[in-house]
Write a structure and sequence with these properties.
The chain is mainly alpha-helical. It contains 19 helices and five strands. Strands 1, 2, 3, 4 and 5 form a five-stranded antiparallel sheet that branches. Helix 1 packs antiparallel against helix 8. The radius of gyration is 25 Å and the shape is globular. The two termini are 30 Å apart.
Length: 506
């Protein structure tokens, strides 16, 4: 792959990430859905909870599809599902098609599954094209930053252009996501098993016997260098050699992945000999797990660290706060008219999006600079940052300033945790089955999301009584007492992950 292809692919992956913000902006228009379609708070929590749960469950399908058929297929499929779901929700809001609780759940299932296909496919492209490089952490951080900034971007677009116009907002998201992601399908490139993403051979090389000497200082070094007295013979071959597997026979004792690409550098004449160098760019660089290889799907499920790692994301909090923020804001300020709170709500959604984005951006960079044994410590820190505001909300708050603290601290911690999940999944289980490992470790998360949303909806409706709005701190504080217990369990499991990794580093 040429360098410009790698960076062009990265750019369109960022654009795809930035189109996936509808779930986190649900609170911007949930009250209008509630009044227009006669929903209760429990109905809204069920719809939004199933949408988020679908995002996680879809990893089980999206992971194998991405690994087997490639990212382009997954992005195309995801774009169609995502846009179709948004379009159907828009038509239901307008009253042109059925808009019951059950049908809205179906529409948001399409949105959630499409979002996962696009997200995981974009991540896999980035892992494939940048894995193993010195700046991999920054690249991953920027990608997750764009994903985290998506809600902030859409919140501003909603506030400026679509306030009070839900059907226009949903149509805008549907069209934007479809156009951007179909462009991603056309533009992306990745090397896979000696083939480009377009299915063409990536080399036309002569036999490796022309290469007289190649040395590699160490397995993790990205610079391949060597010398040859008569450079002409090597140059003839070097013009065509772009895949490491074409010279595999010349490297009998090196543990190098066959998908790695090598780029020939300019030769230099030194001491009467021509010196050359080739820079190796790993397309997929599996983590070395005990036996020097990556884990297979069966090995992943049998690994002791896997179950504790997965359970962290079953009990983790932050999603329910995000989805129900307008109701929490109403109860805190005791304002019965949610329309009057539109500006504050948009501001908080922006703050939550920005805080989560910063966490997503920093986590890969920090993890790359920490030794393998101590990387799960960041996951533990994230749980503490989420737990602190959850406990504050459990006591009830009566000032918006405390909500600013909760929005910032909780979402920053959630951003750290979600980005750590991506990096630690590759670190624990390897990159060859990266998408599948993500699917396994996130598969049970919907249990926690649906459970938390159910608890919030039931307790909110009970305190609201016969009215549709609940305007005191008890409306949400009882739910956050339970959420504090859940988050405490998540913290305990993150400490177990840290202990297992510290005791037996890979």
């Amino acid at each position: 792959m040429q360098n410009w292809q790698r960076w062009t692919t990265f750019a369109v992956c960022l654009a795809s990430m930035a189109t996936l913000g509808i779930a986190s902006t649900f609170s911007l228009y949930s009250e209008e859905l509630k009044s227009r379609l006669s929903f209760t708070s429990s109905d809204l929590n069920l719809i939004s909870g199933i949408e988020l749960a679908t995002e996680d469950l879809s990893f089980l399908l999206a992971g194998p599809v991405v690994d087997k058929f490639g990212s382009q297929v997954a992005v195309g499929l995801g774009a169609m599902l995502y846009s179709l779901g948004c379009l159907l929700a828009q038509l239901a809001y307008r009253g042109l098609i059925m808009g019951t609780r059950s049908t809205m759940i179906l529409y948001y299932i399409l949105v959630g599954s499409g979002s996962t296909f696009v997200y995981l496919a974009a991540l896999k492209l980035i892992v494939v094209n940048f894995g193993g490089l010195a700046y991999e952490g920054v690249i991953m951080g920027v990608a997750l930053l764009f994903y985290g900034l998506s809600p902030m971007l859409f919140a501003q677009i909603f506030g400026w252009f679509f306030a009070g116009n839900i059907q226009g907002y949903l149509m805008f998201i549907a069209v934007t996501a479809l156009v951007v992601n179909l462009l991603t399908v056309l533009i992306t490139s990745a090397t896979r098993n000696g083939m480009t993403s377009r299915g063409q051979p990536s080399i036309s090389a002569e036999p490796a016997k022309h290469v007289d000497k190649i040395t590699i200082a160490e397995e993790t070094n990205s610079l391949i260098s060597g010398t040859k007295d008569n450079f002409g013979t090597f140059a003839q071959v070097g013009q065509d050699v772009r895949r490491l597997q074409s010279i595999e026979d010349a490297l009998p004792n090196q543990c190098i992945e066959g998908g790695d690409t090598i780029d020939l550098q300019e030769p230099q004449l030194q001491d009467g000999s021509m010196h050359y160098s080739m820079r190796r760019t790993p397309s997929i660089t599996p983590s070395k797990i005990e036996n020097g290889s990556f884990m297979t799907p069966k090995q992943i499920l049998r690994a002791p660290v896997f179950w504790s790692f997965a359970l962290v994301f079953v009990f983790i909090q932050g999603f329910t706060y995000n989805l129900n923020f307008i109701q929490i804001l109403q109860a805190t300020l005791q304002e019965p008219n949610s329309t009057l709170l539109s500006a504050q709500n948009t501001r908080h959604v922006t703050i939550m999006s920005f805080s989560q984005s910063v966490g997503r951006f920093l986590a890969p960079i920090l993890l790359q600079r920490v030794s393998s044994s101590y990387r799960p410590s960041l996951l533990c820190l994230a749980q503490v940052l989420i737990l602190a505001p959850t406990v504050v909300l459990a006591h009830g708050v009566y000032a918006e300033s405390l909500l600013y603290f909760a929005s910032t601290c909780m979402q920053f911690g959630l951003g750290l945790a979600l980005a750590s999940h991506v990096v630690l999944t590759e670190d624990f289980f390897g990159a060859k089955y990266f998408a599948t490992a993500c699917a396994f470790s996130i598969a049970c998360t919907p249990i926690g999301i649906l459970g938390s949303n159910f608890v919030f909806g039931q307790l909110y409706d009970r305190d609201a009584g016969t009215g549709t709005e609940c305007l005191n701190a008890n409306c949400y504080s009882k739910a956050f007492v339970i959420f504090s217990v859940f988050q405490g369990v998540a913290l305990c499991f993150s400490l177990v992950v840290f202990y297992l990794r510290w005791r037996k580093p890979q």
